[in-house]
Amino acid sequence: MTREDVLDAIRTMLSEHMSHAHMQGFGPEARLNEDLYLDSVLILQIFLNLELEYGLAMPEEAIARQEIETVADLVSLYVPKPSAAPVPSFPLTGGTTDEGVHGEAYYDIKVHCFVSCVCDGLKRRSLDQRPFYFGVWDAKFTVSDRFQLLYHSPEITQEFFRSWFQRLYGVTVREWYDPRKTKFENLAVLLDLVKNRPDTGSVMVMLDMFHLPERENKFNQNPFPHYLMLQETADPRKWFVHDPDYRWEGEIEREKVIHAIMQPTVGGGYVFDNAEARTPDAEDIKAYFEACFVEDRNPIVDAVRDIIAAHLGGRDGLTLADLAAAVRELPVITIRKYAYEHGFAFFWRALKLPAAEFETWCEEIEALVQSLKGLHYACMKLGQTGDRKQADAVFERLDEADRLERKLKGRLGEVFALWCDRNVAAPVTALKRAAG
């Protein structure tokens, strides 16, 4: 197919097959997220429809590409231009020169909004935030009674992270939001906190990102509960919004922010003072790692395996047609696996291990993330086609993701034990965490 043919096919897919509501600005230069409101799941849906309807097989590596920003980029996946000389990119530094794990700069991974908010103050005080990311790669999620994967639900609280942050860094994180009060009562508390925020203080609130359409939202979930931080500005009609997880800050109309906060889909908030932050003790870091580390299994792989089995088996009336919706939030959980980079980096720097080996493990982390992306695509294909023969490919993806993550955990456990030998007097105990 020519470039124009592929462009027409994508237009047809969106308008006729997917009934996409944001086609006004469609064209080669249209930005997928900002102009067309296409998130990562919808882009995968385009890939799948083009494969099933037009026979345009998507190259495996295309699912992994991060630089797909416009419709033209999407077209180029099928009609590629001559490739330029590759420019190396190093995961931890995010730069084009290898400063290595022992350099000062490193890439700030967006993987968990609560963790990103509390860690923002650590960076401002030149404290190492990396140990706190031990709790992210297997951070809790839930599976509903209809076997749907959920990154956020009423059963999930931030208490694990809140209490450990206080123990590690000495920062009191106080929950100001009271679910027993009305939304308006909680809003009154928030307004007072923002107005009286000290210079070193942070006011965190949960809002529904779906109702801030001017903000980048790579997942475009509806709803999309998300924590960020607020400050007053010189203009009483605007608030300064600081979103460490999405590496964005700027002014937004106060009423728009309040509208997103007042949605019935969300509720939560914390305050803390960055001036309290201190360097964590080695004994506390050891205890936190042990509390976080799920050594003998991979919760997300186990959960997806159960979800697929339930849909294949028709449990409680489920069908394969329900599978795509059941795993829709898998990408939100998948990006948490990048937190392994922070874990490896902390121990590599502390132990002065070879930078080249660190980069090898970063590649293994990337392989895990891409295997989970491929798993998501395979689940969507199984669900949309209803072809039970596709199940074998799905379970192969599951096994591969499980193997890759066990390999990462094996090496991480080894360097943790070595770090303990050098920094902690007490012996290393069995590593267990009640995850799920």
UniProtKB/TrEMBL annotation:
<feature type="domain" description="Carrier">
    <location>
        <begin position="4"/>
        <end position="82"/>
    </location>
</feature>
<dbReference type="InterPro" id="IPR036736">
    <property type="entry name" value="ACP-like_sf"/>
</dbReference>
<dbReference type="Pfam" id="PF19468">
    <property type="entry name" value="DUF6005"/>
</dbReference>
<protein>
    <submittedName>
        <fullName>Acyl carrier protein</fullName>
    </submittedName>
</protein>
<dbReference type="InterPro" id="IPR009081">
    <property type="entry name" value="PP-bd_ACP"/>
</dbReference>
<dbReference type="InterPro" id="IPR046047">
    <property type="entry name" value="DUF6005"/>
</dbReference>
